[in-house]
Design brief:
The protein is of the alpha+beta class. Among the domains are: 158 residues, no CATH class; 37 residues.
């Protein structure tokens, strides 16, 4: 009883053009755990399936994909060539950006959580005729600190915290690609790109805002070691990763679209010495690996959609704002983010929301996301011993109180077609991927077609007469047969 995510992939209506999904076990955005031979368990998300309806853009990452234990070279070659995993394989992206994406067999995956959005159609199984709609979402999050202080002997900086409500968290990056924004309460647009200034801390304590953040890379897990205070060491890499090397000395990966404090990055030496030095100065003997301590928005590219016409009085056209907004103190008050409800219209128990924060009760975060508490002091008080606040004075004035989502547990409230409502664990549901346009849902307004009543009456009359005629024929046959048999016994 589930369906594709709202605003997600398109839904085809002709079953003849669809792959046979009745044997599908995993779906887009499922959170799963895999274990590569000789390695530790890895948690990540299914980013592409063999039964996808739409082409999912995975860009250059497809060339960095490594095969799982059951994927043959031919399977990997087919995936790289077509962009679609062969059946029954899935494209798995790890939550940690320093791990490689994997072409993995469905039997190698353990389902941890399943993502749904407010308004999704769901079922309890792919073959069930009964469907429902998600009307409320609540997600509990497990976090770990993104910025780990390796000199902390208490272990608090590395300890995780469980059971955090998603409504208590916000993304580290205030502006994200795809956000809807409103300019001067007049024009609405969507963010096409976000340009940021990235500041990193090197192993010798120097701090620099790099010249070109777009050239930063992520070192493959195992190719570097820590040196305290969240800084990488100056020692050479001791272990190779599973991908093709982008560097002769260090294997690196393409970074995520937006970086955040706590992430380790590799930077070229020209990018360092051309940067803006905040503490210290360029030293060619220092290994060019650093930890991000600050990310600041510089400018935004906005695709403007329309002007707000819901204004009082006479509508007055206003000139379209510039496509690129330079983010300064003068422009900041003019732009606000459009807040939408991702958690539904009621809470999990069916009670109406009473605060704006409840609108973000679930459905937005997944493993690997970088977040911070909306109210850190309240979180320190609530999760005693599990959440530690790192003062700015200890980090040269930077706020590094960021966290990584390591696990999610989503529950949803479903309104079924028979008007009943139940609370379900998302792992017990599946998306309703091919919703019939003639499906009827609670709350929909329907009318009988103008001449359908007469047609139905005529059809009913024909059916009744046909049934009577069949009954009479059978009865007559029985009577005749009875007469013949009775004559035999005389």
């Amino acid at each position: 009883m589930s369906n594709a995510r709202v605003g997600g992939k398109a839904i085809a209506s002709e079953s003849t053009s669809l792959p046979d999904r009745t044997s599908a076990t995993l779906f887009l955005e499922d959170t799963v755990q895999i274990q590569l031979p000789g390695g530790e368990p890895i948690i990540g998300v299914i980013a592409k399936t063999w039964h996808d309806l739409d082409e999912q853009d995975i860009g250059s990452e497809i060339d960095e994909t490594i095969p799982g234990a059951k994927a043959s070279p031919a399977d990997l070659k087919s995936f790289v060539k077509t962009g679609t995993p062969p059946r029954p394989f899935y494209y798995f992206t790890p939550s940690a950006p320093d791990n490689c994406p994997v072409l993995v067999h469905e039997s190698e995956c353990t389902l941890l959580d399943r993502a749904f959005a407010f308004g999704d159609a769901v079922k309890r199984s792919l073959t069930s005729p009964h469907a429902g709609t998600v009307i409320s979402i609540e997600t509990r999050i497990e976090l770990r600190p993104a910025f780990i202080d390796r000199t902390d002997t208490t272990g608090l900086s590395q300890a995780g915290v469980k059971g955090v409500l998603e409504s208590e968290l916000v993304f580290v990056n205030e502006w994200n690609i795809g956000d809807f924004v409103v300019y001067k309460n007049c024009w609405m647009g969507v963010l096409d790109d976000v340009f940021e200034e990235v500041t990193i801390k090197l192993s010798n304590g120097s701090v620099v805002s790099v010249y070109d953040p777009g050239e930063l890379k992520i070192p493959i897990s195992g190719d570097f070691t820590g040196d305290g205070n969240g800084s990488p060491s100056t020692t050479a890499p001791t272990q190779t990763g599973g991908r093709k090397a982008n560097s002769a000395k260090l294997k690196v990966l393409t970074p995520p679209a937006q970086l955040s404090p706590g992430q380790t990055v590799v930077v070229s030496r020209p990018n360092l010495w051309r940067g803006r030095w905040i503490y210290g100065a360029y030293d060619p003997s220092i290994n060019p690996i650093g930890v991000v301590v600050d990310v600041k928005t510089v400018s935004l590219d906005v695709h403007w959609l329309c002007q707000n016409m819901m204004v009082t009085g006479r509508f007055i056209p206003v000139e379209r704002p510039p496509s690129r907004l330079v983010w300064d103190e003068e422009e900041m008050p003019n732009l606000i983010k459009f807040k939408k409800s991702v958690g539904g219209v009621v809470d999990l128990q069916g009670n109406p929301f009473t605060t704006v924060r409840q609108l973000a009760s679930g459905g937005d975060l997944q493993v690997g996301d970088r977040v911070k508490f909306a109210d850190l002091d309240a979180a320190v008080e609530k999760y005693r011993g599990a959440v530690k606040k790192i003062p700015r004075s200890e980090m040269l004035g930077f706020d590094v109180n960021t966290f990584v989502v390591v696990r999610t547990n989503m529950k949803v409230r479903v309104l079924w077609q028979d008007m009943t409502e139940t609370i379900e664990d998302c792992k017990s549901l599946v998306p309703y991927l091919n919703v019939d346009e003639h499906e009827v849902w609670p709350g929909e307004i329907v009318v009988i077609k103008p001449d359908m009543a007469a047609v139905e009456e005529k059809n009913c009359w024909n059916r009744r007469n046909a049934a009577v005629e069949r009954t009479v024929r059978r009865c007559v046959g029985c009577v005749d047969l009875g007469h013949r048999h009775s004559s035999w016994w005389r």
